[in-house]
Zinc metalloproteinase (Timema podura), 365 residues
Amino acid sequence: MPIYIICKGHNGEFQAPNNEENTIQSACRRIAVGCKLIQCLTAEKLAESGLGRKTFQLENDLNTQAAECTVFHSQLSVERARRLSPEELWEHFGRELMMSPLGNNNRKFVAFLSCTRYIPNGKKPDTYEEILSSMEGHVALGGGGLAIFGTGCLHTWPRGVEEVVPRFLNVTQVDTQSLMDDSCFRGTYGGCFSTTLGSVCHELGHTFDLGHTEGSIMGRGFDNLNLVFTVHTKNDNEKIDKEKNKRVSSPASKASAQHATVSFTKVLNISYRAPSPIRKPINKFNRTPDSPKRKLSFTDLSIRSSQESIASDTVDESQTTSELSGDLTYWTKSCATILAFHRVQRDTLVLPKTEILGFDPSRVH
């Protein structure tokens, strides 16, 4: 379920250059398009692996009356949100979403935080760590039932299908004196769109039990996602160093690295007292109508470390056919197999020519 989180005291507008619309409605349109692109990517890459076109359901696929992206007003203040670490943001919003009317063990959330802010320190950042040190409310984490992201580069995303290719090909240079550059050193708006959309795909993969791998979408292959949707080749996926007059820093040749590595496992258990009268509960809460105490287990929202991941980078992936394709974006054999044979929810919707990948709450961690 795509979610746009607005913290208490924030107007919901995401950071963007003056010429870009940054309203709540614009954010939701961009998120909806991005999620559909990832939905498409998942299906096509599984098909390349010989496992058929299977992908996850979006809320609007199940209920056409539902919003393509739901606005969620958090009770967490914007000031506090900007002080919390990525792990703390993930934990807080995981609790809050599951305690809300949206909470459901048969639903996974892909959420975007509106109050992400880049505050430059006066000099051009040379490393990704320096960029992160200038960020507030930035997060890119996924696991269990929640994948959550900052919106520092959301302005580079398309508002409609007609903008997808132009946005990927946008070579406008990022002004690092005012905006975040999350492009894997390409320095362009198109690079930011490719890397951040790929990052969402990567973290969403963690919610479907996938762990880190060498290369591929679950490694650092997600930076090259633009090559899937355009006719450019991997050699075009570089930038020109005007001073040295040569191409440099192709993300395809970068050493494997992660935006964030989660290194803990934590189960959250929350109890609260519901006001009387109490309606007859749904069976999943395992309590009688007379019980004043309602307990929710958030085991489906706990993050797993790469060491505990189901997909192991020790598996021989040498026969992965899509790795040899020109776009350099692929699922490893182990990841593709897990996705393709993930337990399907009982009442899944089957779209024309496309099987839908569901999930079983008992499988999440």
Notes: The chain has two domains: 2-266+302-363, 271-299.
